[in-house]
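Last lecture ended with a question: if I hand you only a sequence, what can you say about the shape of the protein? Today we answer it with a concrete record. The protein is LLM class flavin-dependent oxidoreductase. Below, first the input exactly as provided, then the predicted structure, then a couple of comments.
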Amino acid sequence: MQFGIFTVGDVATDPHTGRTPTEYERIKAMVALAQKAEEVGLDVFATGEHHNPPFVPSSPTTMLGYVAARTERLVLSTSTTLITTNDPVKIAEDYAMLQHLADGRVDLMMGRGNTGPVYPWFGKDIREGINLAVENYALLRRLWREDVVNWEGKFRTPLQGFTSTPRPLDGVPPFVWHGSIRSPEIAEQAAYYGDGFFHNNIFWPKEHTKSLIDLYRQRYAHYGHGTPEQAVVGLGGHVYMRHNSRDAIREFRPVFDHSPVMGGGMSLEEYMEQTPLTVGTPEQVIEKTLTFREHFGDYQRQLFMVDGGGIPLNTALEQIELLGEEVVPVLREEFAKNRPADVPDAPTHTSLLAAREAERARTTGPVA
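The predicted structure:
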């Protein structure tokens, strides 16, 4: 099982000091978070993709390419790649290039985004969001798996005899997660292709999250990829930790209250009760996270948000240290207990390459 962090890259005011970082500072902070994640033994760093203030990560491949040069083991991912407003040809090229530069340490999460005005900025219609996601991803898969593509669809110009370059590393495309917090159509898409399904459940009650994950698992089995339990699932989480829970609550409450997403409605305590947000001690984070398996079954990837909302860099780095030193080692041990042998690990370039070679050997037989 993989553990890591994700960031949405928002530029927000620290409610304790009133200071707002510059875009330069926020971008550099995201790099520092990734490097700290590797230093403390986490597995994954994921960045969002946004094209509007107050967010800075408009070019995830630029960010991840920079991080790739400064890390050795970390899996580099996205917490959203906008399959709706990006050209699938450019996605195919950019992430294959990143895959080569990072020696295969790349996967990505397809998403539709949560900002309506982005669509017309890129010449798209938000009312076609689902259809764009379906058509664009179908083309992306072909671009990565076929050397020469002839294609015609609804949303972009046709392709005739087109070859996307560079080709995926070792002929193995990056693994894809489909991210959704509300759309059964996306769960169905992930199941149809046998890809991963990531529910970033940080804003949602467990009943809603469970309904989408259960749908994905059932449809994954329906399409013949394995049992429902073998489907590849990822989850989000949101944590703020101190060794004294009262200190954690006192420090995080202003962040919560000033949040344009979390604040202004239910109290922090009610929010923690209904969503995965955990503000407290490392032990409380462990306890809450372990309930995810009870609700959703064995899964493959757990990503935590530790920054955002104006949390300063030093504090976010402290959160990563607590994850690496006190939380994740316990979670690894506990999640491994009673895990069925046929539940797969999170796919990596190495495991996907090995699976392809094994399939080739099975279908061709031994060489005389």
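Comments.
1. The mean pLDDT is 95.
2. The radius of gyration is 20 Å.
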